[in-house]
């Protein structure tokens, strides 16, 4: 079956300019390579609702075969969709760094200990969970899983909330659906953040 990809992005009022540039390059590349695709934005402030609404919209257009999740604070290569499609996995993702210290991969390897993160340097690796910033999902996965596909859930063991991405991955585990990360492709993906620049930053620069 020929892939028909829905590129889905939950947003607030604006997207990062680097994301916009990456998205423009991506859609141009897909056009040149005859990869059928559509782009969907869902405005709002409740992330699980935005993701659920996007999935529902895509499934109602039965021609789509995959959802490519790309968050609006991601920077990615133009071939990201086609490279992930080549793996022929139901859920295939790129991992990336958190935006705040202590920096860590958003690929989790142990459901009982969320400090355990994937530290591989190359290859494909199955993980327990991964952040949704750059993930390709076969639409059949959503038809298998119960709704809601995404929601915030309180983790009593950690006394903290689990993100909607981890909730989705918990469902994958319950239904024996593998979640795989491509480390080599992940090296070409960045998570866009912000930094406050201080006067001492100039001192560090001048002392080098």
Polypeptide structure, described:
- The chain is built from 7 helices and 13 strands.
- The chain has a 7-stranded mixed sheet with strand order 2-1-3-9-5-12-7. Strands 4-13 form a two-stranded antiparallel ribbon.
- The longest helix has 16 residues.
- The protein is α/β, with parallel strands linked by helices.
- The relative contact order is 0.18.
- The N and C termini lie far apart (about 55 Å).
Give a quick precis of the structure.
The protein is α/β, with parallel strands linked by helices. The chain is built from 7 helices and 13 strands.
Please give the alpha-carbon distance between the first and last residues.
55 Å
List the secondary-structure elements in sequence, H or E: EHEHEEHEEEEEHEEHEHEH
Number of strands: 13
Number of helices: 7
- Would you identify the regions where 5 or more consecutive residues have pLDDT less than 50? none
Percent helix among the residues? Answer: 25-40%
Strand content: 15-25%
What oligomerization state is this entry in? single chain
User: What is the CA-atom radius of gyration, in angstroms?
Assistant: 18 Å
Q: What's the main sheet like?
A: 7 strands, mixed
The whole-number mean of residue pLDDT values reads 93
What are the salient characteristics of this protein?
single chain, 208 residues, alpha/beta, seven-stranded mixed sheet
Topology:
Elements: E1 4-11, H1 17-32, E2 36-43, H2 47-60, E3 66-70, E4 74-75, H3 80-85, E5 91-93, E6 107-108, E7 124-127, E8 129-130, E9 134-138, H4 139-144, E10 153-155, E11 160-162, H5 164-174, E12 179-182, H6 183-186, E13 190-191, H7 199-207
Parallel strand pairs: 1-2, 1-3, 5-12
Antiparallel strand pairs: 3-9, 4-13, 5-9, 6-8, 7-12, 10-11
């Amino acid at each position: 079956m020929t892939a028909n990809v829905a590129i889905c992005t939950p947003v607030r009022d604006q997207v990062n300019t680097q994301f916009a540039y990456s998205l423009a390059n991506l859609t141009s590349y897909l056009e040149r390579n005859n990869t059928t695709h559509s782009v969907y934005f869902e405005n709002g402030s409740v992330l699980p609702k935005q993701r659920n609404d996007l999935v529902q919209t895509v499934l109602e257009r039965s021609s789509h075969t995959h959802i490519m999740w790309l968050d609006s604070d991601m920077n990615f290569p133009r071939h990201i969709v086609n490279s992930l499609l080549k793996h022929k996995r139901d859920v295939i993702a790129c991992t990336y760094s958190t935006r705040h210290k202590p920096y860590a991969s958003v690929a989790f390897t142990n459901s009982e200990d969320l400090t355990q993160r994937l530290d591989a340097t190359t290859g494909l690796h199955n993980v327990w969970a991964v952040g949704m910033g750059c993930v390709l999902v076969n639409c059949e996965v959503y038809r298998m899983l119960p709704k809601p596909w995404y929601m915030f859930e309180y983790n009593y063991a950690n006394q903290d909330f689990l993100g909607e991405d981890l909730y989705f991955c918990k469902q994958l585990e319950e239904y024996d659906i593998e979640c795989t990360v491509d480390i080599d492709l992940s090296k070409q993906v960045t998570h866009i953040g912000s930094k406050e620049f201080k006067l001492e930053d100039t001192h560090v620069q001048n002392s080098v």
